[in-house]
Design a protein that fits this description.
Blueprint lengths: L1 H17 L3 H4 L16 H11 L5 E3 L5 E3 L2 H15 L12 E3 H8 L3 H9 L6 E3 L2 E5 H28 L16
Amino acid sequence: MKSSRLILSQISSIARISSMGYTVETMSIASQEPITLPQNERHQVQELERMLHLGIPALVSSSGERVELPNTVYEVLRRVVELMARGQAITLIPDKQVVTTQRAADLLGMSRPFFVKLLQAGVMAHHRVGNQRRVYLKDVLQFARQRDQERQEALDRLARDAFDAGLYERTRIPEGGSDE
């Protein structure tokens, strides 16, 4: 039973990893390039991350003036530092960022004509600039998250059904391999 849970978990993990590819491309959409932490600043950012977990900090100017960070700014700063400490690049994208149908289709890994058909079917809100359709990036990313969640649930059902049907018991373990 332990090995069957492990197999189901591995299938789910593989599916999750393969469906995460669209997020990396969103970095080039913003008007600025992603901010990547230089190796020589890694220790400082890790120390900053530790300090941010102690509570809401304040900024102190060179003249000694102190300003408490608003909670919202603190949460954004804490999240950015946390991601950078893990070595991930950061890009801030405005909430109302608009993309073309071609760019949205590229992000979703589909053709532009297929994406336009989805828009015409009412799957996602869009607006027109002249005779061209535009969509909000947040809507594209929300669609991608929902699609990925539905895919994950379908893969989980397939893995569960295959396990219930006993298909894993019939699978031979390669020589020198292990089921753990």
